[in-house]
Amino acid sequence: MPNPLVSDRNVEFLLYELLRAEELTALPYFADHGRETFDLVLASARKLAREQMFPAFKPMDEEPPRLVNGQLRIHPAMHEIWPKMFELGLGNATRPVELGGQQLPRTVAVLAAHYCMAANGAAMGYLGLTQGAAHLLEAFGDEFLRREFMTRMYAGEWAGTMALTEPHAGSSLADVRTRARPAGDEWRIDGNKVFISGGDQDLTSNIVHLTLARIEGAPAGIKGVSLFAIPKKRPDGTDNDCTCAGVFHKMGWRGLPSIALNFGERGECRGWLVGEPNRGISYMFQMMNEARLMVGLNAVSTASAAYFESVEYARTRPQGRPLNARDPNAPQVPIVEHADVRRMLLKQK
Fold first, then answer.
1. Residue at a domain's end among 285, 309, 326
2. C-alpha distances in angstroms, 160 versus 91, 115, 201, 253?
3. Phi then psi for 302, rounded to 5 degrees?
4. In this predicted model, what pLDDT tens digit does every residue of 329-339 receive, in sequence order?
């Protein structure tokens, strides 16, 4: 039996009986929706997860991205999955209609993502990072950044990342050394980041790195860190001196590369300031908090898929005989018939 990944009945119970999502349609922002549209979104996500994303998980994990002549090449399956996710509107499901979104309640969007994360967490990593980066620009970017960068990211034409960690500092963001210097309407960027998930790929025509950097002369510590949008290619399509210096693979997430990222090796990297100088940490916490929720959802989703794998294995793996069996030649029984196995499955559930 194919892995269902997530219990449809559990989703229905959570959404309609426990959380009473239909009542949200009384709010003006969600007035165009109802149970019919919620069910359609969930059914579409369920179909994509079960029929395309889950079958691609193992191949993507077994053949992780490769760095070839300075360009990261990802698994071909991702090239098929990416446009399907945006066709379903998963990239901007909760965003306003004027931004191309569906104005779905986050409650519904999260449960749709639940299916897809259970199927292929790596594939959803590309999407989640792009959503978070685009939302940062929506919230804090100027008109230029929203028009030139955000709209393309919400449409799936460009991807996005968060570039925080540096080799010498780890998670200590007060010690960021990546430097920004004025260059007209732009900023000249130089520095190094590491463990940047989705930091390079051949999936989209551009990648926008939402990057923490320190403006030259800024105060030391957290209060001197600013946020910049740094694209792999400039808006005119020219190279922006933003390069992948190495790739790492994480267990269970090998389909999503984690890279070392260098800015300004030739002195030609340009970035655009997001919001006000020296407020980068407060802005970035929006995306960091969204990422925390995504990681939590991924944990629940992975556990759900693992549970259904365990159930199927227990139903089909013969071993031993019932405790009251007297005939040693009697056929073996599936291990699900053993009380201790059922106890473990119940605990896992």
1. 285
2. 12, 22, 11, 17
3. -65, -40
4. 889 999 999 99
Q: Give me the CATH number covering residue 274.
A: 2.40.110.10
Determine, yes or no, domain membership for 235: yes
Together in a domain, 166 and 244: yes
Predicted confidence band at 1 (pLDDT cuts at 50, 70, 90)? confident
For residue 189, what are its two tokens?
Answer: 């960027």
Name residue 12's amino acid.
E
pLDDT digits (tens, 9 = 90+) for 140-175: 999 999 999 999 999 999 999 999 999 998 888 999
- CA distances to 104, 303, 308 from 115, rounded to whole Å, are 17, 12, 13
Phi, psi of 229 (to 5 degrees): -100, 115
* Helix/strand/coil (H/E/C) assignment for every residue in the chain: CCCCCCCHHHHHHHHHHHCCHHHHHHCHHHCCCCHHHHHHHHHHHHHHHHHHHHHHHHHHHHCCCEEECCEEECCHHHHHHHHHHHHCCCCCCCCCHHHCCCCCCHHHHHHHHHHHHHHCHHHHHHHHHHHHHHHHHHHHCCHHHHHHHHHHHHCCCEEEEEECCECCCECCHHHCCCEEEEECCEEEEEEEEEEEECCCCCCCCEEEEEEEEEECCCCCCHHHEEEEEEECECCCCCECCEEEEEEECCCCCCCCCEEEEEECCCCCCEEEECCCCCCHHHHHHHHHHHHHHHHHHHHHHHHHHHHHHHHHHHHHCECCCCCCCCCCCCCCCEHHHCHHHHHHHHHHC
CATH code assigned at 66: 1.10.540.10
| Domain assignment of residue 230, given as a range | 158-285
Give per-residue pLDDT as tens, 284-316. Answer: 999 999 999 999 999 999 999 999 999 999 999
75 with 180, same domain?
no
Beta bridge partners of 191: 263
- Asked if residue 146 belongs to a domain, the reply is yes
**Residue type present at position 117:** M
Degrees (nearest 5) of the Cα angle 274, 279, 280?
A: 60
Rounded to two decimals, the pTM is: 0.94
